[in-house]
Every structure is written in C-alpha cells, then in structure tokens.
Amino acid sequence: MASIYDIKPAFQNLLRPLTRGLAAAGVTANQVTVLATALSLATGTAIALFPAARWPLLVMPGFLFLRMALNAIDGMLAREHGQKSRLGALLNECGDAISDTALYLPLALVPGFDPRLIAIIVALALVTEIAGLAALLTGSSRRYDGPMGKSDRAFVFGCLSLAAGLGLPLAPWLTPVLGIIIVLLILTTARRIRRALGEAGPPS
C-alpha cells in the first residue's frame, strides 16, 4: 500500500535551495528540529485551551505541512551539510514522538472526536515509531514502511482538522474514519516488523 512518504524525495528537491540558504546562514539541523517540536507544542496547546474554537483547527493543516517541511529540512541539513550528530538523532526521534502526541491528543477534547479513539490512535502511532526504531536492534535499517506513517497521519489529521474547523458535519463519518486509521496503524506496525526481520535475514 502506498504512503505519502514515497513522495519525500520530490518534496526534498523542492526544499533543497532553501536548505542550502539556511546552511549558509548558519542554521543547524538541531535548531530546526527543536523549532518544529516547539511549534507543535504551541499548536497542540492552542487546540487544548480552545477545543470549541475553530481557528486552532484551521491553523492545524497549515502547520502540519510546515512541520513536514521542517522535518525534511533538518534531515537534509544533517545529511548533506555535515551536521549529523548523536544529539541530532535523539532530538529527531524524541521530537517526533512529542510532536505527534502534542498535536493529536488535544483533538480528544474537540467536540465530535471520540476521545477513546484519539487516545488509541496516539498510542498506536507511538508504537509504529517504536517498531521503526526497534528495527535497528535487528541489524536492519530504520523502517518507515506502512500506510499510516508520520506523513500519512499528518495528511489525514490535517484534513480532519480542516473539516472540523470549517464546521462541516462530522457525526456520520468521523468515527469510522478514526477506526480505519487504527486498523492502518496496526498494519503499519506489522509491516515494519516484517520488513525489518526480512532485511536482517535469518539469525546467525
């Protein structure tokens, strides 16, 4: 099953001139990572503080796109401009987990969203990333496979937030959509585990 992650190379190509300019200006990958996390916390806090207001939900889609851009930029700064570091790797993984939780968990407070399903989704999203990281323990590469990775979650929740922010009726279809997300997260975790084991090969 296809994932939005598959278009990442094309997205990076669009951002490469900006990334070169940031590197020339002395901006570091770690600074970009921290900025993305801080903005995620601010956006999630706005939704949590004003769950019945529309404006935080309308901000969410644009910020999720910005977050994807910042995530691509920090990776290119690290790989292509000699900024790889152990601290950067830790900030990147921890920042993603913090950002996902900060952005999506407050939706449990928004009218129309089932808080139990949102909590399950946030927990399963963390499990998918743990599965991707745990692949390193088997000798495999970091796994990003699956139909509900970070970029896919951003796209889906951006659309849901936009619909809620515009005041569209959510009742007939929102709960089934959240249920589908849960199923896709489980499939994503399973695929990452299977691909990691396949790449690692049989145990010695």
From TrEMBL:
The keyword Lyase does not apply. Gene3D superfamilies: 1.20.120.1760. The chain crosses the membrane at residues 21-49, 55-77, 117-139, 154-187. Keywords: Membrane, Transmembrane, Transmembrane helix. The keyword Signal does not apply. It holds the Pfam family CDP-OH_P_transf. It comes from the Bacteria. This is CDP-alcohol phosphatidyltransferase family protein. It comes from Luteolibacter arcticus.
